[in-house]
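Morning. Coffee machine broken again, so started the prediction first thing and wrote up yesterday's gels while waiting. Chain of 467 residues, entered below exactly as on the submission form.
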Amino acid sequence: MKNCVIINKKDNVGISLNGTDTIPAGHKFALRDISCGDLVIKYGEIIGRATSDIKEGEWVHTHNVKSHLDEDMAYSYNYHAESYPATSMTFKGFKRSRGRAGIRNEIYIIPTVGCVNDVCIRMEKAAQKYVQGSIDGIFALTHQFGCSQLGEDNDNIKKLLCGVALNPNATFVLFVGLGCENNTLAGVKEYMLEKGATNCEFFNCQDVEDELSYGLDIIKSFADKAKDLVREEIDISELCIGLKCGGSDGYSGLTANPLVGRITDRIVAAGGSAILTEVPEMFGAEQLLMNKCKDKETYERFLKMIVDFKAFYTKNGFPVYENPSPGNKKGGITTLEEKSLGCVEKAGSTEIKDVLMYGDQVREKGVSALNAPGNDLIAATALAASGCQVVLFTTGRGTPFSTFVPTMKIATNERIAEFKNNWIDFCAYSMDEDALLDLLIKTVNGEYKCKSEDVREIAFYKTGVTL
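Came back before lunch.
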C-alpha cells in the first residue's frame, strides 16, 4: 500500500497516511495474513489479539481486534534508557526567590472554596485596569470544591491549590476564603508558609465588610510591584515542561508524541525537567517506563503507583482497561495498549528520575512520572501544580482548553492543524524538531502567546464522597 508507514520491522500492521476507500487515514491495515487469535504487533509491541481472520491489506480495528492486556500481569525491572551528551540552553524569564524562574508575570486570585467564585470573578474583572508594564495578566482560578470534602479529598484540594500558587509563573497570589469551609484559609496559609512562599495574601469574605474593595486594594499593591519586573537570561535547568496528550488519533504515536519526546530529551540534556502523567494511559506500556527508572527504588515507587491505580479501578467496580475513548477509536486507536505505547513516547528516551504523588512539587532534574488520571484538565492542572511552567499538549482531534499555565497545542496531523487553526499552535506532521523547540523557547520567553492562553482553568482529582 502506498502512502503508508511501518513503524517497526516486527510489526504485522502498517498505518495508512491518506486513507483508502476501506481504510480511514491514520488507521491500521494488515501487512500479512493474521489468523484469529494471533497477536497484533505495532511499535514492535503487542497492541491486541485478532478476534477473526484478517487478510493482508484489510482494515485492522475494533471490529477484528481486542485488547491483550492482563489485569494481573507481573512486572520486573530490566534497566534500559538512553543518555545524551550534556548541552547548554537558556531562556528569558522572571527570577523567583524559591529557585525556579517564571515564564509569565501573573497575579492569581484563588478561592479556597467554590462559594466565593463570583467574588473572585468580579475581582478579576475590576482588576484588569491594573494590568500594565510587564504584567501578563490577573486571573481568577475558580473551582467548585473546598467544602463538604473529607479526608484525602480535602487534603488534596488544599495541596493542589497551594501547588497552583507555588507555580513560578505566579508573581503574587491572593487567596480568598469564605470563613466556614473545610479547606480553611488558616490551613492554606500554614502550608504556604511551610513552603517558604512570601508572595501571598489571604482574607476571608466573612471577616470584611466589603470583600471586593478589600481584595482590589491588595491586588493593586501586587500590581504596583509586579509591573516593573523584567525578564533575565536564565539557565534551562530552571524550566520544567509538562507532557500531555488528548483527543489522540492514529497519528499521535507517529508524529506529535515522538516529536515531543525528542524535545524532552533535548531539554533534559541541557539540564531541564519534564513531567509525564496520565497513569491509566501508561497501562500497556508501563513495563517500558519501569525499565527506564534510574534505580530499583524508583522502579518500586513507579510499580506501586501503577498497582494502586489499577486497584482503585477494581475497588470501584470498573474494568482497568476501559479505554480508549470513542474519539480515539474514530481516529484510529483500537486498544489501550496501542494508545499507551504512543502516549509514553512524549517522555523521550532518557531515564525516569523520580515518581511524584498527586500534588507533589517537582524535585529532580530530568523526567519525573506524576500520579494523576488521564482527564485532560485534571492531568494538566496536576502537571502545572507540580511546577511545570508550560504544558506541551499533543492532539489529533483538537481541543480549545488550557490549564492555568500556557498550554501549547501540537497537532498530530495537517487536517486538524488547518481546520482548527484557532486552537493549534504547531503541526507536528512535518516532524520539524528544531521548529518546535524554537516555538517552545519563544513561548517561554514571552515572545509567543499560545492560542488558548486567555483560557485559564483548573480541575481536581476527586476520589471520595461529598457531604
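The first helix runs from residue 117 to 127. Going to sketch it on the whiteboard this afternoon.
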